[in-house]
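Intended use. Records like the one below are meant for learning the mapping from a protein sequence to its folded structure. Do not use them to infer anything beyond what is encoded.
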Amino acid sequence: METIFIKSLGGTGTVTGSKHLLKTTELTILVDCGLFQGIKSLREQNWESLNIPIAEIDLVILTHAHLDHCGYLPLLLKNGFKGRIYMTEPTAELTKLILLDSAKLQEEDAKKANQHHYTKHHPAKPLYTQDDTERAFEHFYIVKENTDIKLSDHIQCQFKPCGHILGACSVAITCFDKTTVFSGDIGRNRSEILPIHDFFTEADSLVMESTYGDRLHDNTDLYDSLQHWINLMVKNHGNIIIPSFAVGRAQELIYMLFLKFLLNRSCWYMANHVHWKHCV
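Structure written out for the chain above:
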């Protein structure tokens, strides 16, 4: 019997830095390659070695484009990775935008740290640059959903949409007739702008995202809830501030507002009284 070894290098003990290593006799696969985000002790882990021989990783599979799943890719290339990075086409387009933005912010932060001398590093350097990021794009390999993709003689994978954001998928990797499913980040059952979930129904092993695993979402209609609070704001002549993740959540909110309110003449007022704050 062939041995299949799985090790999490991130995304455990915290919700960021997702990296799961699947090692077999034929291939070594990294599922997701994210940055650690949040408090300083987490961010500092991005500068630490992964404690694995990166040059031995044969390929990367990317479930979706959020920075905590894709943000480490330029570093992986800088440190010796030479293989393909498998992802859906929407994920590829979003990942390019997110990585370029990440690199730009890191370059700006390093420049400010050097100008104002608030770093112990002389000089301060970014994790990676925009040039590093563009080199990573050369390794992107686009795949189709619901299609068997042969990775080696005895290993194949398949992507299925799981909501969350555009292009996001769960991935099943079958190695020597044993299937491991990596859920990726799972979205709500209802979305007006994303395809319907198409979950895997069988697996020998499951590596599952469980950020909200200890609670159940209620059955409140999001449109009705948003309408209630905005109408209450209008009635009280107030303003409404909507914090929103820039990729995925903001687009759905904009669509909901347009569909439910901006097309409704009775709510014209809110068009000038909703303020957006995007959170990366």
